[in-house]
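To whoever is covering the structure queue this week,

Two jobs came back overnight. Logging them here so there's a record in the thread.

Job A:
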Amino acid sequence: MEHFYLSLLLLFVSFVTLSLFSLFYKHRSNFTGPNLPPGKTGYPMIGESLEFLSSGWKGHPEKFIFDRMAKFSSEVFKTSLLGQPAAVFCGPTCNKFLFSNENKLVTAWWPESVNKVFPSSTQSSSNEESKKMRKMLPNFLKPEALQRYIGIMDNIAERHFASGWDNQKEVTVFPLAKRYTFWLACRLFISVEDPNHIATFADPFQALASGIISIPIDLPGTPFNRAIKASNFIRKELVKIIKQRKIDLAEGKATPTQDILSHMLLTCDENGQYMAELDIADKILGLLIGGHDTASAACTFIVKYLAEIPEVYEGVYNEQMEIAKSKAAGELLNWDDIQKMRYSWNVACEVMRLAPPLQGGFREALTDFAFNGFSIPKGWKLYWSANSTHKNPDYFPEPQKFDPSRFEGRGPAPYTYVPFGGGPRMCPGKEYARLEILVFMHHLVKRFKWDKLIPDEKIVVDPMPIPAKGLPVRLFPHKA
């Protein structure tokens, strides 16, 4: 009997050893080939993902990039991220190469966690679904359409500040900024503006946003598991809205052009097929995330920097009060007012340089190609980093200094300032984000000055930069 148990133990040890060897061999084989970029690949399966993510959790996402730029290559180095062999591209030359070769040498890539959180999109790839969305969005995000949104944004901002900020001595900025941008997205994308209805989505959306780009371990309590549950809940709620909209359109209670949801319901493909309700729910879900998450981070950091730099606050305040004084009582902001907010937008741009809401993005090599003397194999994942230029003194002297004048005149050199990406995949909501951020700034400084309650509050990046405690501030209303 002892021999039997000993044999079982030896068999188990042999199995584990062979499995580990197989993993190690497979991991090493992913990085074999001539002229690969320099770098290190970390451990099997894990690669350097923990170092990559933890540099953000510690508040310095650029450290992972700059440490390897210094050690291996200032433009491209190899690594292993999210279980994939990868090359990290750094600097404006690399940005230009990736952005200008979209759908030629490279294509967008999303981690497997994204497909699992958005299951209906697995009928076709996330990339194909993204392309379909980009064809739909221009009608709603072109300047003529955006001009119609300004009054709506102004009205919702007024209601938001009246309900969440006015008559408060202290507030926590990040959750309030998320409430503002989410309210706008719900109103403009699906015509939902009842605050109580919107509030039912708030916590699930927080769980979803935190877990989309995470290690895809579907066990109770993990961020990924919470994201899947949140996604299922939100999707069911959206299907209810979609079903009601169908009825409203049929009865003439809704219009075909009132928002993106109506457009999706009434648009068919080249084969005359209309989108299924779950597909529409998935696309609306993605839009609601993209339409509020990054802008809420930008708004939060604007509050942070205006609190820290009084002269910048005064510049924004003077510009916005000049606009406010030109308006009649009850008159809403318009396109001309937005165009006058030049200094305020320079400030917002400098905020997004120092704390880019989009830290970078992944691509996948469609074929073998060479770049800067190195070979990039087909199937490798490619990551571009905003911080590789935003915080690089070669492109922005004294990169840690807050200086809105960097954006005066012709502004930064091409491909150095990339908070919205670039090329065909540049964020289609860039102008939409500009409007919601400027309207937020207008209402904020018109009402208050403020002090940070935690002077040295830590910043964490997960996956966007956010103050660790949400940026609590003490408000000082302006005297009427």
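Job B:
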Amino acid sequence: MATFFSLYPSTSSSLPSPPRTPKLQFSLLKQNSTCIYFKKRSLYVNSVLSAETDSKVPQTVQTFWQWLKDEGVVSAKTPVRPGVVPEGLGLVATRDVAKNEVILEVPKKYWINPNTVLESEIGNVCSALKPWISVALFFLRERFREDSKWKNYIDILPEYTNSTIFWSEEELSEIQGTQLLSTTLGVKEYVQNEFLKVEEEIIIPNKQLFPIPITLDDFFWAFGILRSRAFSRLRNQNLVIIPFADLVNHSARVTTEDHAYEVRGPAGLFSWDYLFSLRSPLPLKAGEQVFIQYDLNKSNADTALDYGFIDSKSDRDAFTLTLEISDSDVFFGDKLDIAELNGLGETAYFDIKLGQPLPPAMLPYLRLVALGGTDAFLLESIFRNTIWGHLELPISRANEELVCQVVRNACKSALSGYHTTIEEDDKLKEGGNLSPRLEIAVGIRVGEKKVLQQIDDIFRERELELDELEYYQERRLKDLGLVGEQGDIIFWEPK
């Protein structure tokens, strides 16, 4: 019987998810030691400068804005423009904007998605590739073409973000011991392997389509751009880049995600098309920055990997426990059957967030994994349809104690892997003047440690209550009317 603990952030787009690489492994019988954008410096901007009024706005951005005008994507009625903001670039209101007012619309012909690739000159050689790889190759090819239709857009894209995939070895050492480090290294290995494969099968055999050599660094750039800028909540769109719309920044002040829509509308003087429509989730005054919510469900590890920032809200701090029924368990088949009947499997992932209770299914699954000895009778087929209800409550003192011991030992082992304490990290945060990446690193590691400490506290308190808990046999005797008012067992003697 074994338990694996790892980080597995989810992603709603067709971009690859970080691999489930276990950080820690524990045996319930015998323990064994064994698994992104700029940090927001301001959530509210009173005054920003637009592309048409500020000389600080890069010339590439001004050129891009003019291109959008020439293409009819924006007009004098468009209530937002690119502007210089604390995050770098963002969208700012040119007039007062009401809550839920449409601030921009981008016709489908200006979207970049797998269909865009299929209709391009590299469509034939990319048709069998994973969607994100085909779009990445499209970006790289267009990036090196002087006559590209997308040149004005690609020219405003950053060379890198603060996503951990772009960190140096020295910077990555600051997240030593974290699940984020394990995930980042797994993603980097995955992207490198995909590059080597596509280089051999697509890039080199088609030099007429890719005349300029594409390097691994180029491929990582494209991956980072897609990971940080893709929209994924549109109908039938799992991976789509929306130029202009992707300038909008994130804020924790926005607590809803229903701001992006796919609608039918005029795309020209005599044409109609699908439009990407973006509404402002907050009321704005002229000169204020537009913000949206990138994803309410993402942890700080997710946002550090995807965008290169972390959120100040404590419920973004998380640690993922990955639990597994060991295939060496003599009751493996029975336990797997029970887990699957209840929507779980051989491996189960539980995201624990700071300040929030444990996921409802976590304790039953732990008790199932630990089940053995004299408690194993519950695994018999006659209990198959009722056992999960029993597992929602303590089974026996031995089972509950084993669960507590293993989880607490796991937390202690994980906490020993960090090179700083919570107190040391808190002092660094209070001192300020941290670089953006060090600020992310400190925030991630202190967040993970606080969640691990929270988990340890929950099971430490559980251990102290073991003698007071009511277990299966006591509940069963009560159901049969064999326990008296004082909790004493009633023995019936034959007459």
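Note for Job B: The two ends are 48 Å apart (CA to CA).

Please reply-all if you pick these up so we don't duplicate work.
Q.
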